[in-house]
Recover the amino acids of this structure.
């Protein structure tokens, strides 16, 4: 799960840079990430929590699952938090 969340974060970062250069629309970039990020972050968080429970069950190291949980929170919260206010 850590590889998946890290991959999603890197993919979104690269896509945001490319999209920002091509479309020259900063507001649109933040809107796209801000509106879909809570859903993707929640899915990653649920899967990471299941990974943590599996690590507890197998008595395996929990640091990878905890890192995946932290990345899931970053994916879900940061783009939504920087979303500009749009009253329309």
């Amino acid at each position: 799960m850590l590889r998946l969340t890290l991959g999603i974060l890197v993919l979104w970062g690269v896509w945001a840079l490319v999209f920002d250069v091509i479309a020259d629309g900063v507001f649109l970039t933040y809107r796209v990430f801000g509106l879909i990020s809570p859903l993707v972050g929640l899915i990653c968080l649920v899967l990471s929590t299941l990974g943590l429970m599996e690590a507890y069950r197998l008595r395996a190291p929990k640091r990878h699952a905890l890192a995946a949980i932290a990345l899931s929170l970053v994916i879900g919260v940061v783009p939504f938090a920087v979303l500009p206010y749009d009253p329309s």
Observations:
- The chain has one domain: 2-80.
- The mean pLDDT is 82.
- Helices lie at 2-23, 26-58, 63-81.
